[in-house]
Q: What sequence folds into this?
């Protein structure tokens, strides 16, 4: 069977998610590979969410937020603009091609831009091929995770 | 009443955890009085065969230190699991892979190459043979354990009842746990982290924190740090925000940044991810080029953020093709 990239997209509620919605209602065609997770802000995307996505089998992860200056929470995407390049270094450190992680700004009115980015990223991941990690198979196991007592 | 039975074991570890147990000082005599020590390879002469003969679940408390990186470590982990009522992952290596877990940055082949052929202090003989699992000698065949490609934490191999973090756990915390068990109070729920706190190292640290805005990072030897101010505020990469409390913030008190040995704080999945998040919040830059320039100053993020927890991190190991 041909390889279909599995992509996780973290979209901020106020801009990019609405932009994706606009692409839908405007009937702009785009690749169906991105599984969208809506977050309140791109700044809410904890780096561990992204590592977790790779752990459980994502071939690529894309984070989308409001353009700089437009974040609903003023500063959220300024955190994101530092986090993602930093996390790319870590991802590379783990032996994963950093192109598998991408950050883009998409406003609520940019349905066409959303579709273009999704198509581009899907093709890029397709050309990189499936992400194979040992943690997908035998290393996954932890028998009992710590619990907290307070 | 018969004394409760205690076992201590070291798998892939440095021996520091054993010293930490002895560091409870004269109270070690109370431990010896209160418990019947049935297995402790570093201090007493017991053989694996003695443990095999024990009834299942006959050891009340087993403090297991060291990570699992070869077939012997795994075999004894399974054996002690079967024989123990409460199996405790004791110290960073058992809990999260610890320093040996840094082997997950590379491969078994690369490690053997370096140790037996490449290192400057190695004198290569016989073309640099690697240890052989089976060797024929006049008396017959000898077998040594098989080294694994990937280092694992104890809970990736057997079920663990409790976790005591630290490299090594600090003596007052060890003693606290032992006292608690001896008091006969009900044990905490299975899977609890004991002998530690539920916040972060920063919460215990005496250094004064201000609003952080960093344009530059330093290695500890590069600057003279101010003794009462937060090290991270001064541009030293300190693992305090991504590390559980419990040690009393020993390292910052001694002018060294926390290296993260008490492991994940509650509700954190990955120390590296947490540090990316924490440091990204304090870097004072908005321009991509400037951000990259500042990030370049953080030396060896993999080794720094995952010094103890790589084997138990979300991705577990570095992929090498
Ligand atoms: S970052 Fe380090 S020096 Fe600063 S408060 Fe936390 S533990 Fe203390
Ligand atoms: S300050 Fe950090 S590295 Fe030092 S003992 Fe405490 S937890 Fe471990
Ligand atoms: S609300 Fe969209 S990036 Fe913050």
A:
């Amino acid at each position: 069977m041909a390889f279909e990239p599995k992509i996780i997209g973290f979209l901020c509620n106020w801009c990019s998610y609405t932009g994706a919605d606009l692409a839908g209602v405007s009937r702009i065609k785009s690749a169906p590979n991105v599984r969208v997770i809506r977050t309140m802000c791109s700044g809410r995307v904890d780096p561990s969410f992204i590592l977790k996505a790779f752990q459980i089998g994502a071939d690529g992860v894309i984070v989308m937020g409001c353009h700089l200056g437009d974040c609903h929470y003023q500063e959220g995407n300024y955190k994101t603009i530092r986090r993602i390049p930093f996390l790319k270094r870590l991802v590379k450190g783990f032996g994963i091609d950093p192109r598998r992680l991408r950050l883009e700004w998409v406003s609520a009115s940019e349905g066409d831009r959303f579709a273009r980015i999704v198509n581009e990223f899907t093709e890029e991941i397709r050309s990189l091929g499936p992400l194979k990690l040992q943690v997908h198979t035998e290393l996954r196991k932890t028998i009992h995770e710590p619990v907290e007592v307070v | 009443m018969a004394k409760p039975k205690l076992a201590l074991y070291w798998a892939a570890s440095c021996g520091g955890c054993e010293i930490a147990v002895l560091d409870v000082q004269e109270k070690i005599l109370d431990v010896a009085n209160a418990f019947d020590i049935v297995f402790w390879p570093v201090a007493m002469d017991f053989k694996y065969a003695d443990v095999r003969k024990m009834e299942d679940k006959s050891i009340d408390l087993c403090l297991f230190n060291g990570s699992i990186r070869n077939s012997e470590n795994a075999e004894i982990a399974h054996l002690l699991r079967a024989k123990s009522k409460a199996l405790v992952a004791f110290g960073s290596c058992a809990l999260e892979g610890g320093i040996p877990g840094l082997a997950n940055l590379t491969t078994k082949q690369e490690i053997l190459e370096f140790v037996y052929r490449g290192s400057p202090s190695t004198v290569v003989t016989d073309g640099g043979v690697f240890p052989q699992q089976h060797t024929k000698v006049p008396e017959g065949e000898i077998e040594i354990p098989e080294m694994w490609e990937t280092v694992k934490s104890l809970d990736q191999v057997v079920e663990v009842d409790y976790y005591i973090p630290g490299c090594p756990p600090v003596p007052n915390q060890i003693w606290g746990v032992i006292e608690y068990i001896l008091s006969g109070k009900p044990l905490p729920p299975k899977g609890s982290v004991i002998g530690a706190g539920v916040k972060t190292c920063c919460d215990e640290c005496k250094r004064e924190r201000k609003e952080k805005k960093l344009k530059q990072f330093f290695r500890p030897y590069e600057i003279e740090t101010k003794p009462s101010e937060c090290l991270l505020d001064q541009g030293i990469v300190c693992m305090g925000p991504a590390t559980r409390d419990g040690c009393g913030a020993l390292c910052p008190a001694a002018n060294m940044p926390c290296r993260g040995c008490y492991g994940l704080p509650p509700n954190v999945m990955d120390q590296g991810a947490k540090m990316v998040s924490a440091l990204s919040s304090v870097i004072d830059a908005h321009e991509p080029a400037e951000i990259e320039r500042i990030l370049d100053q953080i030396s060896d993020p993999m080794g720094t953020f995952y010094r103890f927890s790589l084997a138990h991190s979300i991705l577990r190991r570095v992929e090498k093709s």
User: Anything to note?
Assistant: Chain A has a mean pLDDT of 94. Chain A has four helices and four strands.
